[in-house]
Amino acid sequence: MSHEFSKKLYKLTVAGGVAFWITDFVISLSPIAAEYMAAFSISYLPLALVEALVGGLIIGCFVSYFLLRFFEKIPTKNPILKSVILSFAAIVIIEALSTFVNPSNAYVYLLIDTVMNIPRILALGIVIGYLYDKLNGRVRK
Length: 141
Description:
Number of helices: 5
Radius of gyration: 16 Å
Largest sheet: none
Distance between the termini: 32 Å
Order of helices and strands: HHHHH
Oligomer: single chain
Helix content: over 70%
Number of strands: 0
Number of domains: 1
């Protein structure tokens, strides 16, 4: 991995992770999120402040890596759309894995979790795609 690639990967990962975390924090203030966390006995502070940031950074790293590595192979010309496509692919994989790991979860909670992940993953994808565009000196018309 070149130094330039690593530098871009770091910047994209951090920006995407922070966007995911901020969106998660805002969502965690909603009454639906409070009921969801209560149903699973999830502590608010550690989830919102630590686990969401770590999760966002991990997802952001994978999305950023694949965007940088396979940019030309991803359908569409728009980097934001490419990043959003990768982000949604990541969330589909995560939701599928979480269903297999804990099949006893009620489907309604899986549905709620998926719906709450849409804004998080959308924010992550948009920020990574936008920053990719800026880091590569592309000019929007």
